Amino acid sequence: MTRPLLCPTCKSNRMRFTVIEQMPRYMRLDPQSGEVVAELSSDQLDAFHQPYKGENFMIQCGVCGTTEPEERFAKMAQHMQGQRS
Ligand SMILES: [Zn+2]
């Protein structure tokens, strides 16, 4: 992370953040019992199973607990810088 972040909710926190890594795991379940039959890697998925396309990680504000993609925090930091000058 090499750009300033600012929480879009409490608008005061620029220092205390938690990085939440998103680790998609692809499962095949037994339709009757719900038991895990197989765990697949993304290249083993069949045509009916969409791979995860979301964020690789999320950021949580350490002060108010808001969790958003990093982009939202970076945009807010940019926006507030623009207002000050
Ligand atoms: Zn916050």
Report on this model:
This is DNA alkylation repair protein. The protein has 85 residues and is of the alpha+beta class. It has one domain. Helix content is 18%, strand content 26%. The protein has 1 helix and 5 strands; from the N terminus they run βββββα. The chain has one helix spanning 70-84, and strands at residues 17-21, 26-29, 36-40, 57-61, 67-69. The strands form 2 sheets. The chain has a 3-stranded antiparallel sheet. The longest helix is centred in the C-terminal third of the chain and has 15 residues, at 70-84. The two termini are 24 Å apart. The mean pLDDT is 94. Bound molecules: zinc ion. Residues 7, 9-10, 13, 61, 63-64, 66 line the site of zinc ion (ZN).
In short:
This protein has one helix at 70-84, and strands at residues 17-21, 26-29, 36-40, 57-61, 67-69. It is α+β, with helices and mostly antiparallel strands and 85 residues long.
Secondary-structure topology with pairs:
Layout: E1 17-21, E2 26-29, E3 36-40, E4 57-61, E5 67-69, H1 70-84
Antiparallel strand pairs: 1-4, 2-3, 4-5
Bound molecules: zinc ion.
Zinc ion is lined by residues 7, 9-10, 13, 61, 63-64, 66.
Protein name: DNA alkylation repair protein
Q: Could you tell me which ligands this complex binds, including any ions or cofactors?
A: zinc ion
Question: If strands are numbered along the chain, what order do they take across the biggest sheet?
Answer: 1-4-5
The helix/strand class is: alpha+beta
Radius of gyration: 18 Å
Q: Give the biggest beta sheet.
A: 3 strands, antiparallel
Shape: elongated
The helix count comes to 1
- Count of folded domains: 1
Specify the helix fraction band. 10-25%
Number of strands: 5
Beta-strand content estimate: 25-35%
